[in-house]
Amino acid sequence: MSKVLCGDALEMLKTLPTGSVNMCVTSPPYYGLRDYGIDGQLGTEDTPALYIERLVDIFREVYRVLRKDGTLWINIADSYAGSGKGGWDSPIKNGISQQQYNPKAFNMPKKWKGIKAKDMIGIPWSLAFSLRDSGWYLRSDIIWQKPNCMPESVKDRPSKSYEHIFLLAKSKKYYYDYEAVQEPVAPETVARLKRAVSDVGKYANGVDGQPMQAIFLPRDHSKERTMRNKRDVWTVSTNSYRADGHFAMYPERLIEPCILAGCPVGGVVLDPFFGSGTTGAAAKRLGREYIGIELNPEYCTIAEKRIDEVIPQKDMEGYNEKVE
Ligand SMILES: C[S@@+](CC[C@H](N)C(=O)[O-])C[C@H]1O[C@@H](n2cnc3c(N)ncnc32)[C@H](O)[C@@H]1O
User: Ligand 1 centre from 271 Cα, in Å?
Assistant: First the structure.
């Protein structure tokens, strides 16, 4: 079932059956930031509006392919208009990107009507609102905080150290296994809650003999509160792992919670901008199937080779069912 489809995201999505995948997690090329060295790549449109329009069309097709209870998780970051500095990373000096270097990407305009040079373009929220307008339920803006973000040479604003992950759903009610991604409550909080419970008798009749105006009795949280619902700021270091020749990978650790919450074991995870196949690697490791779509055939090969080497968690020594 798991497969990599090599070709344009929109065209390949059209070949997939309606309602056939559980979830989609992906990171599209950011606007005007990198050159993936191939004609037809996303991110080099003449205006931000055209870029958003193209993404909305692609995600409309993802909407069709998702089951009714499916979710879409999009990792995206903003771009700056035409300072002439930053942005537009050169293709890596060797390997496939250099061979397939597409100069079109570097000749894009650097400012647009209503957006001045140096302005933030506001891509993430423009995309989120456009997707909401096209029918998606916009459910969460998760902040990916990067403790080891790239240093920037800017001296007139703080350095960027986060990106967004938008969680969108096809329907009002959708599959979301919150228990699979619960996080531990801090030990100090557990201790404080236990103290609060043991203090109940002490303060119920008033403090220092004075009757209490309003008696606030803490609930007994001591049993259920060792775990809590996952928060929406995720601190994850950027990759130390580099697949040969791909320079815009997200870390597996970043998308593991998306897969655990969004797809049951044995379900299908879709990524229409597959790159080096991180989504496929994480899906396989966690016992899910995957469908990856990637325009650059050389990245397809890299992804397939990388995923081949992944050992599913259940086959690993010492695996414990509770990991799920
Ligand atoms: C940000 S990267 C994804 C990286 C991936 N998440 C990983 O961890 O390796 C975006 C990918 O989208 C691909 N891409 C660009 N335009 C595309 C299109 N029209 N259809 C399919 N893939 C495209 C690029 O070649 C690039 O590999």
Answer: 9
Looking at residue 315, the DSSP 8-state letter turns out to be G
Q: Is the pLDDT of residue 214 over 50?
A: no
What domains appear along the chain, each with residue ranges and CATH number?
3-181+229-315 (3.40.50.150), 183-216 (no CATH)
Sheet holding 3-6, edge to edge: 3-6, 289-294, 268-271, 21-26, 66-76, 162-169, 137-145, 233-235
Compute, in angstroms, the gap from residue 194 CA to the centroid of ligand 1.
Answer: 49
Instruction: Return the ligand 1 atom nearest residue 36 CA.
Output: 25
Give 142-166 pLDDT, tens digit per residue.
999 999 988 888 899 999 999 999 9
CB of 323 closer than 8 Å to CB of 32 = no
What CA–CA distance (Å, rounded) separates 240 from 251?
Answer: 9
State how far the Cα of 180 lies from the Cα of 279, in Å rounded to an integer.
Answer: 18
Mean pLDDT of 299-305: 97
